[in-house]
Amino acid sequence: MDIFLQQIINGLVLGSIYALVALGYTMVYGILGLINFAHGEVVMVGALVAYSIMTALLPTGMPPVLLALLALLVAAPVCMGLAWAIERYAYRPLRHAPKLAPLISAIGVSILLQNLAMMIWGRSYHSFPDILPAITYDINGAHISLLQVVTIALAALTMAVLAWLIQRTSLGQAMRATAENPAIAELMGIPVNRIITLTFIIGAALAALAGLMVGANYSVAHYYMGFMLGLKAFTAAVLGGIGNITGAMLGGLLLGLIESLGAGYIADLTGGFLGSHYQDIFAFLVLIGVLVFRPGGLMGERVSERA
Amino acid sequence: MSLHKRHTLSATALILATLGLTACGNKDAAPAASGEVTIKIGHAAPLTGPQAHLGKDNENGAVMAIDELNSRGVTLGGNKVKFVLISEDDQADPKAGTTVAQKFVDQKVNGVVGHLNSGTTIPASRIYSDAGIPQISGSATNPTYTQQGFKTTFRVFANDVHQGQALAQFATQSLKAKTIAIVDDRTAYGQGLADEFKKAAEAAGARIVAQEFTTDKATDFKAILTKIKASNPDILFFSAMDAQGGPALKQARELGLKATFLIGDGGCTPEFIKLAGNAAEGQYCSLPGVPLEKMPGGTVFKEKYKQRYNQQIQLYAPYVYDAVMVMADAMQRANSADPTKYLPEVSKAQYQGVTAKIEFDAKGDLSVPAVSIYQDKGGDWNFVETLGVTAAAPAKK
Fold first, then answer.
1. What domains can you pick out in chain B, each with its CATH number?
2. Interface test with B, best of A3, A10, A118, A139 (most B CBs within 10 A)
């Protein structure tokens, strides 16, 4: 039981991070119909910028929580600026080009960012400083750290704020209108280009937070870390129904749980035939299953509500 | 401005190229003038790129051996001979490695010392084997190198089979482990080492209570570690590199997994301690070979190296030094530098080197390879003990 509970918690932490990143994919897809493959790299930049700020300020003896906050305050604007630049120079010129062109541009940006990060931060793995005191709670033998609790709570809070922003504010209304029909939205006086830019920037802020969370929870940052994370988060977005905000949150959490429980129990379930090295494959198998039986994703049919 | 810059650049390049050419020219011209017979020893290692410091260190070891042989004065078949080192950069790249190998064959070198990496050593070994040129590596640890059935491949360093066995011996005897969990990263290195470890540990009576897998790019190990925690092992052997091992150890402690952590040479680095932080304290790693101070001629070699290069030995220099010496020793016993004549003598080596007494088994591996265990104390890897017979040999004297 304690092991099961532990795996659930592992899965929830991983899932919260996936969900935050998946939101970035899904919001952009909802509005532009574009899969922003560079989004995983924005998370990586967020993590590495946060790492740099924290290690630079560590000797000042500031409390780690304050350090993390400062790191986020720097990392988030850097990511937002980066996302703005990506949208402005890599995607906007291709807005009316065939669908394949912006996709290839996205892959190009992703490779470019990886290599830039490699040049700036080097090839080695960086040890992420502890941002919270190492307090662990013992629940029935399962170890839950303060960091894990904070991660899950913070992700939930962020997603709630985002849901409110999209459903209840005039900005959200404009985003939903743009998603539904950009041409009509423009005729109604909505500054479509600005809304698109804002969507990218909001996604990047979430990415910066996710980057900090990945670094803090797994205590390592690396120029290549965005690739697999981006792929998984994209999977989560598709799993929930790409373009659907609630779907991305649900898909993220679900994927985290599937991976964690999959790695934990797959060997027992298959009698040792499949081992934990099939952890990644397991997640993608579920994705294929969902796509075969529900091509739109779990919540994909509510297309009109996508934002 | 930019035009001017470009001129300066090309001028510099030209000067460098000329210097390089003259340097090479001198090497070839000198022995011819003195009328001695020249013996060419090829040396290959990455001299550029991220491993350049290790490659240069290997080269330094080889240069020291060559200089010592020349100052001692060696005669083969009645002729005074002069050893010449031809050092090439293989960039740690298998493709460049085979190009270098072909170059050596075309230059008709008498023997090759190297390469540094298993990835370059193995593909190059086929080319040397076809040409019948003896090859001694002082650092490639992949078992495959000597298992291809080539007569020309030798190694003066313990391989991963030896390392897996030594780690298992340490776990079951020194740490008295009864239950062991194994994680490997499914790379050739990680999987190979884990397999050898498992075989030896089971033979020694330990029970493998969990075997889990990860990848060489993973950062989240919590799911597999949680599963391992359920089986409550005495020891967790993590068969991967430092980039995975460090974070994994930290995550294991966060989950309350108390097993002693053991990692191979891929994690025996300062990087590992940096990534694991305080969690690394008291944990163990292994490295093939013995620490410099424990080598039969280690202290003297260290002093000589420091005097000559004004820096510390990186890693493999003493092994490469021994590789050259063993090769020269075989030539002297055969009284010839002809590969076909001295090759059989290499296999029969009984050479007391700086690192150990060097004897080869039927495959060309050390017959008594040594592997050392280190423990993290206060943020540094500290020597614990050496497993294998070599360490005991100098003590007997």
1. 35-158+294-358 (3.40.50.2300), 161-288+371-396 (3.40.50.2300)
2. A10
Q: Answer yes or no: do B223 and A125 touch at CB < 8 A.
A: no
Number of Cβ atoms within 10 Å of the Cβ of B209: 18
Confidence at residue A1, expressed as pLDDT on a 0 to 100 scale = 62
What pTM does this model have? 0.78
Which residue shows structure tokens 């997640």?
A283
What is the rounded CA–CA span in Å between residue B335 and residue B318? 25
Domain ranges of chain A: 2-305
pLDDT of residue B392: 34
**Do A220 and B275 lie within an 8 Å CB cutoff?**
yes
pLDDT for B314 equals 81
State the burial class of residue A173 (Cβ atoms within 10 Å of its Cβ: 0-12, 13-18, 19+): middle
pLDDT beneath 50, residues of chain A: 302-307
**CA-nearest residue of chain A to B222?**
A10
> Buried (b) or exposed (e) across B164-196, using 16+ Cβ within 10 A?
bbbbbbbbbeeeebeebbbbbbbeebbbbbbbb
- Predicted confidence at residue B373, as pLDDT, reads 95
pLDDT computed for residue A10 by the predictor? 92
Alpha helix locations (H) across chain B?
2-34, 52-72, 94-106, 118-131, 160-169, 188-203, 222-231, 242-254, 270-276, 298-309, 317-334, 339-347, 392-396
The nearest CA of chain A is from the CA of B94 a distance in Å of 20
| Regions of chain B where pLDDT drops below 70 | 1-35, 389-397
The CATH class of the A2-305 domain is mainly alpha
